[in-house]
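JOB MANIFEST
job_type = single_chain_structure
chain_count = 1
residues = 250
[input]
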Amino acid sequence: MTAHAVPQRKTRRRARGIFTLPFACLVALVVAATTFVSYVLWPTWPSTPTPLDAPAIPVTVAGVLFDVPPAAIRAAVQRHPGPHERIDLDFMWPSLLPPQPDVKTADKPAEKPAAKAESADGTAAANSDRLFVTIAGLGAVLPPVERLRSIYPRYVETQAAAGRDGLAILPFRAGTPYEGEDLVYLGSDPEKFFARCTRPGPAVPGTCIHERALDGAEITLRFPREWLVDWRNVAAGFDRLVAQLHPQGK
């Protein structure tokens, strides 16, 4: 009995060793794969925001490279180089310089895209010398010019009113997604300049949104409607700002 028992124990140990080795290899592979995925997906930006007085930092939105001054970035959490889903900025008007730290709006979460127009109303009303800029990916949304050609005509009135210095003002119909807004554009060449503007009320001034596409990114500029009095200089200022943010596009 004893003579036969010893070889059987050795056989069991040998069998256990055979099955343990593949299991250990499998565990090692799983740990290695998890570590690699965590390393790739883990954010690589610094844990502290870039100082406000630092030079412009390179950021990418939807694969498009921008040079952004840190002092212009409204939310501290966005104040780092590298890829962003969106970035929210503000500039002094008409200098197009970032606001000074002592007068800068306090850091706070940026507005959600769906509430862009509503947020812009209150912000612009209190800061008529500020230009607010959002850069985000277009995603599945049509570029602004395509919206002008194919989307907005479905919702506007049939008759436009004459505006200042060649502008035309076309109200959006009640009951449409743009109710309470006007489509303001250059009558002779709408694609050269156009904006969606809320109508001024007793307590809240009107606000305009001008949008431009850069490859897969969209730049949204929000400004008080009263600036349209000198819309040509406003449009030229927008050109200069886009060239500053995206010098590669020159």
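[summary]
Residues 57-249 form one domain.
The radius of gyration is 28 Å.
exit_status = 0
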